[in-house]
Amino acid sequence: MEVAIEGMRFVRAGRDVLAIPGLRFAGGRTTALLGPNGAGKTTLLRLIAALDRPETGKIRIGGAPVRHNGTTRERVAYSFQKAVFIGGTVRTNLDLGLRLRGLDARTRSARIEEAAGACGIAHLLERDAHRVSGGEAQRANLARALCLRAPVTLLDEPLSGLDGPARRQLLGDLPGLLRDFATTTIVVTHDRGEALRLADDLVVLIDGRVHAAGTKRDVVLRPPDVLSAEFLGYTIIPGEKEVVAIAPGALRPVPGEVCFTLNVHEVVDLGTHREAAGAIGPVRVSVPIEGSAPDAGAGLTVSAAAASVIRFPKGDDAANV
Questions:
Q1: Chain centre distance of CA 85
Q2: Predicted TM-score (pTM) of this structure
Q3: Which domain holds residue 315?
Q4: CATH code for the domain in which residue 9 is found
Q5: Do residues 144 and 268 share a domain?
Q6: Local structure of residue 2 (DSSP, 8 states)
Q7: For 79-191, where are the alpha helices, taking DSSP H only?
Q8: N vs C: which end of the chain shows fewer Cβ within 10 Å?
Q9: φ, ψ of residue 201 in degrees (nearest 5)
Q10: To 10 degrees, the CA torsion angle through 293, 299, 304, 306?
Q11: Are residues 11 and 151 in the same domain?
């Protein structure tokens, strides 16, 4: 079910938090809403879920306008960034949303067992929801949204607060869970790696504005402006007439199609490999090295394939850094 936004503004304390002339989240796909902290990502989710109202504009889900009378909320499942539970067991918390949708007891029980099993928390269903670990809480929070099997699923930083094995495990599980339980999914994250693993499509939101939107491959390979390229991990090198953006991992310490001189500051041993760290002009850059290490203060020729380099006109407002 497609989510469409037209001419939307959201204002808080006299400031535009979001200004989106037009944006579409494709039905039946997972879109990562990617951007730095404070970009307006969570606000956009809340607007889609009818938890907040825009100053102007329209939001449509499956062609129907978002309404604030409960109709929209029945079509949306929302997993908040922080898992908040009512008193009672994990089962009770998963059951609440299903009860509010008027499902019968047998259907509710089957939905809960299925989602809890898939999310790896079946053994926690009878435990007090306030006595689970952080990782368990995030899985319960996710299961609570997925068991609704809503046309649109909104996940706000689903890996928030997790690190190490717990984060890696859930990140590995999420794509399969979304395929099995969700249809149209919008995932908020500020982590580029998470977005690339989870999503079919990307939307890059910076300072409340959409800077890039499209399929994952198109956005990553051809970001439309410097700000989106920089957030996507490109190395940004300003010149007199243009700004050069080099794709992540594209620089190598050998002559090639597009060459630069790296002024080496130090060689860093990272255990599995070494990197020459230094600067190209004013920009700090590191490149992996093999064999003999350059001396500090040396000029090292580095290069990237032409296909991994994007050039933006320096006079273009979108290209200013």
A1: 24
A2: 0.91
A3: 234-319
A4: 3.40.50.300
A5: no
A6: -
A7: 90-100, 105-118, 134-146, 164-181
A8: C
A9: -125, 160
A10: -160
A11: yes
